[in-house]
Amino acid sequence: MHSEVVASRSADQRDSSRESRSGTPQLDAVSLAIIQQLQEDGRRPYAAIGKAVGLSEAAVRQRVQKLLDQGVMQIVAVTDPLTVGFRRQAMVGINVEGDVESIADALSAMSEVEYVVMTAGSFDILAEIVCEDDDHLLDVINKRIRALPGVRSTESFVYLKLKKQTYMWGTR
Fold this sequence. Notes:
172 residues; alpha+beta; elongated
């Protein structure tokens, strides 16, 4: 019985790095469990994660590094922008003429833009902007976003209060 578990675990470790035809990494149940552990506490020790998912500390360390290298996850400190000097946040809806991806790429390169998603609906792109103040936000929208070739229009949704921000959606 024990050798079956070890053999199964070894097969799982090999399978954890496979990619689907679309190039997206295929994640096994152990990798998903590791991700969930880190979503609960990004500073959780590898030994504690290993105990929870049935791997050694070294195996967890290898898995986490692979997940980071593949771009499956990031381990970062999440802050409240107001507490670190950014007084203005906004979601900007953008309508584009022509290639949406090139505009999304240009937005992604801007340091103030934290989130970019191409959408179906009223806007082609939604971009979350974090700025020091209203003047900074105006500069980003008026002089940088609207100046991009292909941007047809923008609509800004200024945040009055951030009520919920979580990254605890788990895994499937």
